[in-house]
Amino acid sequence: MSSTTKLAVPNVVLQSSFSMPVIGFGTASETNDGDTVKAAAIEAIKLGYRHFDTASCYGSEQALGEAIAEALKLGLISSRDQLFITSKLWLSDNHPHLVLPALQKSLQNLGLEYLDLYLVHFPMSAKPEVRKFYHKEDELVPFDLKGVWASMEQCHNLGLTKSIGVSNFSTKKLEDLLSFATIPPAVNQVELNLSWQQKNLREYCKAKGIMVTAYSPLGAGGTSWGSNDVMESELLKDIAHVHGKSIAQVSLRWLYEQGVTFAVKSYNKERMKQNLEIFNFSLTNNDYQKINQIKQERKVKNGPAGFDLADLLWDGEN
Ligand code: NAP
């Protein structure tokens, strides 16, 4: 494939009526430096990625914004509307009066006038003055979901984001949100991969018209929050071998066949390309029998808290 050949990625239509490309390009990394993120995002646009996942806490918004500006300048895209950009509200801004300024700051970082999707990153709030990735127990404060969601709706009504949604929400928290939301969440972005398949949550979201976006779709090997369970699975190695595909491609294909969208992170050109090449094979019943045997274990146990918070965060859900 020449560097200018793009792969077409299918879209899904969200309940907000906007289209979202099934494959998103993740930008969370513990070693995010601006030049690397910018170069990777430009390469991603060349390869055909149109959906980009960032967050105020990733430190990637500015570099992604520079990549978008460069892609426009180079003519890789003719307009910003050809991209689907997601960002997220961090814990320290998870307060009703801080939502709008936080979104405005993200837009400023990205150099954009609107987002396609703005997500409440976690159903947790931290003291506004404490901005960091992992929080201690005494830095967290009660989360006002109703007030925060009203502010998210205001952001949508102001035209600053086309869709609004949540991330890391259990069915219990979604049920609570749906009981008062004027605008229902278009998306719930959660950990979802072959070793954390989240069947109940997926079925609940489908019934409510909420699109699931899988994060850590390969299990996030090599990060402090992930594991090698997926990428080192012997069962998946066998399936991949039969199809002449990689474990990553089998994992992403499985997500696609479940009708969900996903954000996958690679800053390596070959792996970025590989992660798009999932539309020319299908998993068989035999593959599904093996997939059903994979041991299930959540990797992101305590979210951005350095203490045992699992019950509070996930409501005992599996
Ligand atoms: P991931 O995409 O499952 O895994 C990323 C890791 O897999 C990286 O180490 C990457 O290394 C490697 N990789 C990627 N493609 C590969 C391939 N084809 N073969 C072998 N290795 C491959 O994990 P993630 O970064 O946690 O999740 C993806 C995105 O979801 C994030 O970047 C972020 O945008 C989002 N996310 C959201 C939340 C949330 O709370 N909402 C939490 C976590 C992540 P190389 O870069 O070296 O290829």
UniProtKB/TrEMBL annotation:
Residue positions binding substrate: 121
GO annotation terms (biological process): secondary metabolite biosynthetic process
Catalytic residues (UniProt): 58 (proton donor)
Molecular function terms from GO: oxidoreductase activity, acting on the CH-OH group of donors, NAD or NADP as acceptor
InterPro entries, alphabetized: AKR, AKR4A/B, Aldo/ket_reductase_CS, NAD(P)_OxRdtase_dom_sf, NADP_OxRdtase_dom
Keywords: Oxidoreductase
Site residues by UniProt (Lowers pKa of active site Tyr): 88
Residues annotated as domain NADP-dependent oxidoreductase: 23-294
Oxidoreductase found in the keyword field: yes
PANTHER family according to UniProt: ALDO/KETO REDUCTASE
Protein's name in the database: NADP-dependent oxidoreductase domain-containing protein
Originating species: Arachis hypogaea (Peanut)
